[in-house]
Amino acid sequence: MTAKKRAPASTVRVENSGLFGESDALKPLAERMRPRSLDEIVGQARLLGPGTALRRAIEAGHVHSMVLWGPPGCGKTTLALLLAKYANARFKAISAVLSGLADVRAALAEAEAAFAQGERSVLFVDEVHRFNKAQQDAFLPHIEKGVILFVGATTENPSFELNSALLSRCRVHVLDAVSAAAIVEALQRALRDDERGLGHLKLQVDDAALMLIAQAADGDVRRALTLLEIAADVAHDGTIDEATLAQVLADRTRRFDKGGEQFYDQISALHKSVRSSDADAALYWCVRMLDGGVDPAYLARRLTRMAIEDIGLADPRALAFALEAWDTFERLGSPEGELALAEVAIYLAIAAKSNAAYAAFGEVKRLIGETGTLEVPMPLRNAPTKLMKGLGYGKGYQYDPDVEGGIAFDQQCLPDALVGRTFYRPGERGLEAKIREKLDAVRAARAVALAKRGKD
Length: 456
What we know:
This protein is an alpha/beta fold and 456 residues long. The protein has helices at 29-32, 45-48, 53-59, 76-86, 101-116, 133-137, 140-145, 158-161, 164-168, 180-192, 207-217, 221-234, 242-248, 261-275, 279-292, 296-311, 317-332, 338-350, 356-371, 386-390, 431-455, and strands at 11-13, 66-69, 90-95, 121-126, 149-154, 171-174. It folds into 4 domains: 11-174, P-loop containing nucleotide triphosphate hydrolases (Rossmann fold); 180-248, Helicase, Ruva Protein, domain 3 (Orthogonal Bundle), CATH 1.10.8.60; 261-350, Zinc Finger, Delta Prime, domain 3, CATH 1.20.272.10; 376-455, post-AAA+ oligomerization domain-like, CATH 1.10.3710.
């Protein structure tokens, strides 16, 4: 009888051991402490708590193909491993960052061979959103035939990053960023565990220090365990105190993807905070994005757009202020110039709001699409030649500065088909209140004058 071939390193028979059959000696703490059961997963009670639908299905071995969507360090890879364990299936992992279509086909071929022998396979695809359409489509027939239980992990919104064909064959499960309290629980477990964790070191660390580590991890359990391991390495006399944490946490950063879901969520929060006149929230989201590494020029551009779109003529100074702050940042750079952007965020939030000009612009644009090329009234046409003058171009034009009162109210400026239409409807806040008063008077006088001219 021929010896059974050894599975590749990335293929694991999950049922063989508690830590998937690999040596722990050189593994980092985060990998050694990877949960071995659903009960050990922290921070996902909504999805995996006792009695939840997904947990009941997993424990019954009724695993389905799925996409796990959540931030880094929330447990996506761990859950995929446990799915294979509870289903008594082979586990094969590939990374969309490192793998190409050839790797995908090889993994699927392995799964086909196992399927022919009556074995189930969980195929875990990390960073699945990085695969192109052809690579994603390669999984479809194998999912349909049951050759693989597909588990894709992504930090990006699947609606935007994954093919609809793949999404239709998978259930999307959303994992949450892990709370600081739940991360502390994971850290305490690592400190108690003599076999896999740091229990044998008998470290002295209080709850306040653990909370500092948990908060610095920003929802990422893996990051928290890494920070704890570093702190243990540099701890003096086995004590993790404030001095130790000052070294370990000096360069901590917040979660912020410059081109992904969080990026657009945060800029949306900033825009809506300005629109809602919440200066504190506007300042928070502005600084949050700067802290996360947003391109300040992009932030300046979006603030300028807010000044145009949401404030408009209710406070024309807002646009000038936004442009000046943008210019100030270009001159001063970071970090000094960032204060100018923060000041603009505050000013835009407290400024009077009006989208009247924005709405009028959109209305006119739609109208032009519907009405096509309407003729310019003859009096308003340019007449640089004798021929044009002979055709009536410019005939009857009234030069407003020469008219009593400075406005020729009976002069028709809109095309014939649009006479009497109004588009810009000023609000009642800020400068637009005065604009509205003036515009109402002018429109009323023009309506009377044009009606009189029509009768004549």
